[in-house]
Amino acid sequence: MKNKIYLLSMVLGLFILLSACSDNSDSTSSDGEGEDEVTLDVIWFSDGNEGEVFKEITDKYTEENPNIKFNIIDTPYDDLMTRIRTRVSGGDAPDLARISGVNHVQEALLDLSPYLEDKQAFLDEFVDVAIPTVERGDKIIGIPTDVTAHGLFYNKEHFEQAGVEVPQSTEDVWNWEEFKQALTQVKENSDARFALAYDLSPSRYSTLIYQNGGSIFSDDQQSLVINNSESVEALEYFKDLHDQELIPSSIWLGGENPNSLFRSGQAAMHFSGNWNIQSYEENADFEWGVTYMPEGSQRSSVAGGKQIVGFNDSEHKDAVADFLLYFSSQEVNAEFVKESSFLSTRADNAELDYEVRSEEMKVFADELAVTSELPTLDWENPNMPSVETLITENVQKVLSGDIEPQEAMDELVDNVELEN
Amino acid sequence: MKTRSWVPYAFLLPNMLIFGIFVGLPAIYGVYYSFTEWDGISSPVFIGLENFRHILTDPNFLDMLKRTFIYVVLVVPFTVISALGLAWLLTRKIKFANFFRTIFYLPVMISFIVIGLMWNWILQVDTGLINYLLSLISIDPINWLLDPVMANISVIIVTIWARVGFFMVIFIAGLQNISPTLYEAADIDGASDRVKFFKITFPMLKPITLLVIILSFIEFFKTFALVVSLTGGGPINSTKYYVQYTYDVGFNQGEFGVGSALSLILFIIMAVITLIQWKISDGGRV
Amino acid sequence: MTQNKKSQWLIYTILIILSVFMLFPVLWVLSSSLKSGTELFSWPPTIFPNDITFDNYISAFKEANFGRYLFNTVFVTIVATALTLIINTMSGYALAKFRFKGSTVILILFLSTLMIPLEALMIPMFVVLKTLGLYNSIWGIIIPPAATPTGVFLIRQYILSLPDEMIEAAKMDGANEWQVFMKVIIPLSAPVIATLTIFSVMWRWQDYIWPLIAISDTRLYTLELAIANFVGEYSVDWGPLLAMAVVTMVPMIIVFLFFQRFFVQGIMATGVKE
């Protein structure tokens, strides 16, 4: 019995000793910063290698501005908003953050217009679809860093086996009916288990709405029109592709990962976006390409995008603004998007030569070129955060056969109280 | 017990202090926020009982509450009984008891994020390991995560898988505390295993059993991380339970006032149920 | 005797079947973590890797600042567990063996904090942490979660079942309150202290949401934060994630095996005592 007590107290003593030692080492290590040195906290998330590219750029910036350092805080995407909100409302706003849509936090963001000589000239440097992502009233609350485009990946081996040709130019894009036939043929005549993997995402889903000439919000952005006939037809088509088992319903209803279906060669096509290029380049051991998405009454993609934003409560606003303008300059932006396989937000970087899959990037760029501003306006609508969850839910209800498409979309419109 | 009156307070002090500052205080803030409209960024605006009115008249809330209750009512007894059963088996004189204990405890050592992602992968209808193994013996694929009812069953199975080892260890500690002389006396009387279990083991374990029931009840009512990475709350919200619902309202929709009110309601529900359990068991002494 | 043997066999059969159920997902993770990027998602799946590769482990170690995170995690786990054991055992003892004004209220209060989903309180918790100057410090991860209600409750329920006579006897021998606690209560509570150690180590090792908001200096990251960073908006970096999951499991198994022994000693101690 006694022995145990001694053992216990010895172990405790050791803990305390250990903790005392490490405490010292901690406090000395954080004392290293001099008076004029500024460290900018950047909340960051990565899907591919863009984090490393960003690190290189910040290192270069630090070389030119030795008093500015960066603390890049890697954060899982799901907890990005949690971390930002907690810090902003707790009175410790970060200096910079990479985000995907400013809607959730726009109140807290730094307006860049006081730092710009000519606001309009600055905005004009960017492509049309990128501007609404950072312009709020007469404020510019961040810089668009890259745009994403939805598009269609296909497995060349499966299509050869089935003897199906994919559109080679913008002249011969499929219409919806031809697209469905192509999917049916490739499923029947190749080794593919599934014809099409379609991302579980309201934004990817909405591509069909725009292709059919519909939209989510009205042109003036004041009301919901997702229950009009163009949009409902899109949902009917989407349901039909599921009913014909061309798209496995396990994705939208069971959380199956569409990326793994495609990269393991089980799905002949993947309806997704340009951000997959790096990962497919590294992980897919078959020939693949990117082709044009089919057209309904028109061709359309959806432009998404990322922004880097500064915060109002930052203690180093000048440094933040200076870095943001540096990061959005043509040269730096080109480096960032090229090495990360992203599409540029800058009009003067529209034609870049990518080291990886340059041809495929051109198809994505073309998808964007034919896309109107409408999708971007819809997706930047301040009501979108609550609407998009309802889109997912109601589409799922339709796919599982609970309700009819028209009913589902009417119900959605009835359930939303629009603000503003 | 006769003692100077300040002694118990001195023993309580360190724990109370840390707890009061880091949990008690924020909880009071939380109560205040539940009466405000707040997006987590600009300053909160007092709006009285509006949040509660909004919540209690929302059919989605009532659906979610029902769902959460069904899940808890199913998962608690299954977990407690399996944990007790395992603990009982593993404190008998058997070989490799330590080995088996380690195996049953293994899942407890894996984080919920990894457990959820891993089982999501294993349970996939078209590409999952289990349906693949079933296909080898010509069994049709099971819609594990695809159908609302099956998805709930899957969540329950995975919850038990992940947590049974934790409660088993508490039971083992309790069983170790039962004096072997009681069993020896029973052996002399020629009592069977079953008699020994119901006449000695079970009565002696009552305080620990109550502990396990209360702990598991509270824990499962708050199930969050595991489900988020296993089903994401789907399909069509069929596995979205209370805390995920609250978290979505707060951090994803930016309605922190409503989120705080939801937390307060959850707190009241659980406090009432725990008090009832407490009264039934006479202050945990049984 | 034959009856006995039969039931022994039955027990082993049950245990083995259950073990397979418990074990196979873990083994699947282990086996998958040794596969290459293309084999990981191949169809039909390979049960064992065709080519064993440690690439995932290498890239996990390289991408994440593994050594640093490991040190942080070990440090947090050890210190926080020591703190938890001391303060929880003291409180649990006070609540089990003293009758005093407000004891029930305090107990209920402790218990009720278990019922608050901390996910909903993160913003006020962050404010408190920052006000006290513990934000972005390793002590900010260690101290706040140490006062675990579960631990207090666990210890209290266990000490309740210890006989009062032992305490009375010690006091007769002239022991003061602290000596009673150290020399009677602690040794008799060995099994439950071992249990709480196992739990606390595990809680701290896997703590995710609290370090996420309490720390923004990447030098102070823990392993669990690093694992979660493999999950992006569009994609999960499966290979390194699985490798990291395997690596973080190993120390837990060692701790469990080590402290399990104290359970067994617990029996022997009780045996001697009677």
Structure description:
The complex is a heterotrimer of chains A (420), B (286) and C (274). By secondary structure, chain A is an alpha/beta fold. Chain A has helices spanning 2-29, 50-64, 80-89, 119-124, 156-162, 176-189, 202-211, 229-243, 250-254, 258-263, 277-283, 317-327, 330-340, 358-369, 374-380, 384-399, 405-415; strands at 38-44, 68-74, 96-99, 135-136, 139-140, 143-155, 194-198, 267-273, 288-291, 303-310, 343-344. In chain A, α2 (50-64) packs antiparallel against α13 (330-340). The N and C termini of chain A lie far apart (72 Å). The relative contact order of chain A is 0.16. Chain B is an all-alpha fold and 286 residues long. Chain B has one domain (50-280): MetI-like fold, CATH 1.10.3720.10. In chain B, 71% of the residues lie in helices and 1% in strands. A two-stranded antiparallel ribbon of chain B has the order 1-2. In chain B, β1 (36-37) and β2 form a beta hairpin. The mean pLDDT of chain B is 87. Chain C folds into two domains: 1-53, no CATH class; 66-273, Orthogonal Bundle (MetI-like fold), CATH 1.10.3720.10. Chain C has 13 helices and no strands. Chain C is 72% helix and 0% strand. Chain C has helices at residues 2-33, 55-63, 66-97, 103-114, 122-131, 138-142, 149-160, 164-172, 177-188, 190-206, 209-214, 223-228, 238-273. The two termini of chain C are 29 Å apart. Chains in contact: A-B, A-C, B-C. At the B-C interface, α1, α3, α4, α5 and α7 of B face α1, α3, α4, α5 and α7 of C.
